[in-house]
Specification:
The chain has 639 residues and is an alpha/beta fold. It has 3 domains: 277 residues, HUPs (Rossmann fold); 152 residues, Four Helix Bundle (Hemerythrin (Met), subunit A) (Up-down Bundle), CATH 1.20.120.640; 135 residues, no CATH class. The strands form 4 sheets. A 5-stranded parallel beta sheet has the order 5-4-3-10-11, sandwiched between helices. A 4-stranded antiparallel beta sheet has the order 6-7-8-9. Helix 4 packs across helix 6. The radius of gyration is 26 Å and the shape is globular. The structure holds zinc ion (ZN). The site of zinc ion has 5 residues, from helix 7.
């Protein structure tokens, strides 16, 4: 099925930044592996709409959140295969068509068109496979046939002699691992969200309907199980499993938080039972719900806010997108007219920033900081705060101040950004010299990662133009991949550059050993200027060196014990431990007030080198007295 036009993307610098995302199955934020080789495939499935009430802000928030994840995966160097369905066979659609006295197909088509134009306006990268259930009936039947062959299905016949097909909840041993819900909760949610736990004749109340025999007035298709139509979860199961590689490169199954149970639990269970695998997707990630002025947005309350209505009222699509990114994707949060008006102001400030004269070091610092915030379970509020801070550093009093963010948070972000600028200026002269238009550099980064176009007013172009983002891997200029050339048009959605970030892969023992030496020398500050080394020295006390020495020693063994993806994951885990040691060391030093300035700088430098979050600087700002803070700000050149 036709999707919608591709938003403009600039060539992406594939910087080895470790993206961490919340996985419902692990009930924790866990690292997504860096691609082991350039262009490695990552499967992304985000459950699509049931085509009525499209597109309200709750839908939009989910699709925009996964769009940022999609963009980050491309930025990491993955080639993303993005699949989305349209649930155009579903009880709620039939009920709505019935209520309004319209044909369900006509209603569906009209709503799908609306959805496409909303997604295009919101700069959401389209799926390569946009698949209607009505176009996938054969696939669904084939998947059901596998379950039937596996002997895990049975029929329940009603008084009229109609036989519906169910699949046993015990078809897989691991049922329940996605939501981690207990049976009582499962039963309640199943009843609430389209399930039929009370139906007589079922072997287990939690068994799911996979084929519903034809009823009067309902659409139906011929099948080996009689005329009828698919159940809800088996639809996504078939569409996902036939296009992504379940149990392998199927990286993320996404959707709203109301899909965790039953929908994603059952989708995974159906696929796993049919394919004989233990786990369909590697991450199950969900977006929070959107309320309006303090009340949950729902069709029953009649307070849904629609994207197309906001657009008709003249609101800028980028401001609508920013309203959805201003809160964390997993948080249930509110939309309001005030929030939207604030985003319009923010957008104007950002537009001023990128057309203003900007220090190239700031442009690079913004890029690094933006990636870091997003890498931390998609901290979009933090990412927006980075660009805001850049606005204030460049535009002074005219720069945007987010009224929803505490003042000390503003200061913390400015502090980090200024310290990063210093670091970048001292370490990346070559990169900085290659940036002709620092404002555009920021604009391209913001467009690529956040999907907010600051220099172009039109959307829907699939061309790649303009100055390429010179890639930066702060911490070691030799880590740079060479992504200066624009990618050919039409190949944008599949990452743009093919050079490996080999330094992070360690393909053989020699390069692993060399890399470890490089890291060791980096950590010991051997590549730093004497002044910078002085900043690091306090970190290198005996206990820290001892802890790090142990880590250096175990790394070769850990890398040798695995290959491919597992090796990258092992390295990522190890790197996390190194950063933890550093952070703890800095935390201890933090007790001495005289070190505040130095720690802020160390924090920012480590952050620029690829890992320590802004938390240290935030602590400094929150606990230091005003005079001391003023000294820090003066030293770092923050107004
Ligand atoms: Zn689905």
């Amino acid at each position: 099925m036709r999707s919608w036009p591709q938003p403009k993307l600039y060539p992406l610098s594939k910087t080895p930044v470790q993206l961490q995302l919340f996985d419902a199955a692990a009930d924790a934020v866990t690292p997504i592996p860096l691609p082991a080789k350039p262009g490695e495939l990552a499967g992304l499935y985000v459950c699509g709409i049931t085509p009525y009430d499209a597109t309200h802000l709750g839908h939009a928030a989910t699709y925009v959140a996964f769009d940022v994840i999609h963009r980050f995966l491309l930025d990491m160097g993955y080639q993303v295969r993005f699949v989305q369905n349209v649930t155009d066979i579903d009880d709620p659609l039939f009920e709505r068509a019935d209520r309004d006295g319209v044909d369900w197909k006509a209603l569906g088509n009209e709503q799908i068109d609306l959805f496409r134009s909303d997604m295009e306006a919101l700069s959401v990268i389209p799926p390569q496979d946009y698949v209607a259930v009505t176009d996938s009936i054969d696939e669904v039947i084939a998947l059901i046939a596998r379950l039937v062959e596996g002997g895990v299905t049975y029929s329940v016949t009603d008084d009229e002699g109609r036989s519906d097909l169910y699949v046993s909840v015990s078809a897989t041993d691991q049922f329940g691992y996605v939501s981690n819900a207990d049976r009582e909760t499962m039963l309640a949610l199943f009843a609430e969200r389209g399930g039929d736990p009370e139906r007589e004749g079922k072997r287990d109340p939690l068994d799911a309907l996979i084929w519903r025999a034809e009823r009067p007035g309902e659409p139906a298709w011929d099948s080996p199980f009689g005329r009828g139509r698919p159940g809800w979860h088996i639809e996504c199961a078939a569409i996902a499993a036939n296009r992504l590689d379940p149990g392998s490169s199927f990286l993320i199954q996404g959707g709203g938080s109301d899909l965790v149970f039953p929908h994603h639990e059952y989708t995974a269970a159906h696929v796993e039972a049919a394919h004989g695998i233990k786990r369909m997707a590697r991450w199950y990630t969900h977006a929070g719900m959107i309320g309006l002025d303090g009340t949950k947005m729902s069709k029953s309350l009649g307070n849904l806010v629609f994207v197309h209505k906001l657009l008709t009222q003249g609101h800028h699509p980028a401001a609508i997108r920013l309203s959805l990114l201003a809160g964390h994707y997993r948080t249930d949060r509110d939309f309001s007219a005030t929030l939207l008006a604030e985003q319009q102001r923010r957008l104007e400030s950002w537009q001023q920033l990128v057309t203003h004269e900007v220090d190239p070091a700031l442009a690079v610092a913004v890029t690094v900081a933006l990636r870091q915030r997003l890498a931390d379970d998609l901290d979009t509020p933090g990412a927006l705060a980075v660009v805001d801070a850049a606005c204030r550093l460049v535009l002074g009093a005219g720069g945007y101040v987010d009224p929803f963010l505490p003042a000390d948070e503003h200061s913390a972000v400015e502090l980090v950004l200024a310290a990063m600028m210093e670091f970048v200026a001292s370490q990346h002269a070559d990169t900085l010299a290659a940036i002709d238009h620092p404002g555009e550099y920021i604009a391209h980064t913001v467009a690529n990662l956040l999907g907010v176009a600051l220099l172009e007013t039109s959307v829907g172009s699939d061309s790649v133009t303009g100055q390429a983002c010179a890639p930066v891997s702060a911490g070691d200029p030799s880590n740079r991949s060479d992504a200066a050339a624009p990618a050919p048009a039409g190949q944008v959605a599949q990452s743009t550059t093919q050079q490996a970030d080999d330094e992070f892969v360690c393909d053989d023992a020699d390069s692993a050993a060399g890399f470890i030496d490089e890291l060791r020398s980096y950590h010991q500050g051997q590549h730093l200027s004497p002044e910078e080394k002085a900043c690091f020295d306090p970190l290198l006390d005996a206990a820290v060196i001892d802890a790090l020495a142990k880590l250096w020693d175990v790394l070769p063994g850990r890398l040798a014990a695995c290959t491919g993806d597992a090796r990258v994951s092992a390295f990522a885990a190890w790197w996390g431990e190194v950063l933890l040691v550093n952070e703890q060391a800095a935390g201890e030093l933090f007790d001495d007030p005289a070190d505040a300035v130095r720690i802020a700088a160390i924090s920012a430098q480590l952050a620029a080198a690829g890992g320590i979050p802004v938390t240290l600087a935030r602590q400094i700002v929150q606990t230091r007295d005003a005079a001391e803070l003023a000294a820090v700000r003066q030293e770092l050149g923050v107004r």
